[in-house]
Amino acid sequence: MGSQDDQLHTPILESMQRSSSTGSTFESSSELEKVLSDLQLPWLRRLRTATWIELKLLFRLAAPAVLVYLINNAMSLSTRVFAGHLGNLELAAASLGNSGIQLFAYGLMLGMGSAVETLCGQAYGANRSEMLGIYLQRATVVLTATGFPLTVIYVFAKPILLLLGESSAVASAAAVFVYGLIPQIFAYAVNFPIQKFLQAQSIVAPSAIISAATLAVHLLLSWVAVYKLGMGLIGASLVLSVSWWIIVGAQFVYILISDRCKYTWTGFSLQAFSGLWEFLKLSAASAVMLCLETWYFQMLVLIAGLLKNPELALDSLSICMAISGLLFMVSVGFNAAASVRVSNELGAGNPKSAAFSVVLVNLVSFIIAVIEAIVVLSLRHVISYAFTGGATVAKEVSDLCPFLAVTLILNGVQPVLSGVAVGCGWQAFVAYVNVGCYYVVGIPLGCVLGFKFDLGAKGIWSGMIGGTVMQTLILVWVTYRTDWSKEVEKAKQRLDKWEDKEDQPLLKD
């Protein structure tokens, strides 16, 4: 047998093996494109068949993704609960450290991690499997480097909080809590690229199982550290950091031993250190896009503290934001699913499937959001009693529930469209849209309604809803006007740009 023939046939055999190892995802994706392109089928039957195929693909991604985000939130929430049992000062410190400083790092790292989501998703759809591992490593390098300046912010947490007007006692306690979260920064730097690497391959269930198991370990370790060892706030935050590193380690072990990652992870490579500047620019655009969205409604609470009766406004808004934040995890799960589905289809060269996926994921998420809004409105008079027994706060929450319902409905569409943007690589464009709609229109309009027209929290929230509506309408219009065949070509050009020449196979289609 000739060695030249062996060399020529090896890439073809490897490509066939890779396609087989990806399971039913590629098969279903290809089947979806065939169904949508088959004009001989009756329109209704074509729609019904395509919807069934897409729903199976969608919920296989979205359900575990929602679970992962809910569990990760539950770990952070349980840490605050343990801190709260130490005393009111400790609860305030943990809440401030978590909402003020840790949330900033979380949003920044998660946003930067979405860059690898675009590239990995499109590379996987194009069956350029070997590049996923390179993208994963590049993202980890960039995010780890970002972790060092973030560490400086954590170290100087106390003077920063004092500068923001917090009391010396709360700032000191919050700083202690934040010090224990420093290892968590670098866990984020590794976890988010790994998470996006797995999601791009429609591998989501293992992450959900790992997160659920880690939550149980986290609760046990927190109980031991806080109550048995008496480590206080620093113990609670250190356990949270350890728990995140457990998730990172378990997911990486899965990558190493799983046959599903056999061709996407081929080992460590020095190529991870090439093209870092371009990767940093894409990551920065992703981070700005997500952070502007994350911080937007945090500003609502901050501005409400300047109202005439700030305590009542803050209590009622914090309850509404807690409910919104919990249900927002559902939208985040669909955001991840939309990003994966669109990037995979674009990478695979399936424009009809990409467009159909966009429509269906938005429709499903919107229906779920409407159901959430109806439930909230039906429970508007009693929902606050899950958080506090105050009748005054309950009445204020009841008055704010219509605004909460509108926000929930918008959250059924807006985050999903952001996921579509990540799948297409539109992060920089969406960042500009967010700045204009949120910070040039939404917040100023809210301040005018809240303070000038004396509408209080309702006015502030109304203005910010206006900004979200404007942003959503712009994204809907841009998505509607998208030429998906051109997006397929752009995805191919992006992959050709990012793929290292020495990594390309010997034979190409």
TrEMBL record:
It is found in: Membrane. It comes from Vitis vinifera (Grape). Residues 1-26 are annotated as: Disordered. NCBIfam families: matE. It is a multi-pass membrane protein. The chain crosses the membrane at residues 57-83, 103-124, 136-157, 169-191, 203-226, 232-256, 286-307, 319-342, 354-379, 400-423, 429-451, 460-480. The keyword Protein biosynthesis does not apply. The keyword Transcription does not apply. It comes from the Eukaryota. InterPro entries: MATE_euk, MATE_fam. This is Protein DETOXIFICATION. Keywords: Membrane, Transmembrane, Transmembrane helix. Belongs to the multi antimicrobial extrusion (MATE) (TC 2.A.66.1) family.
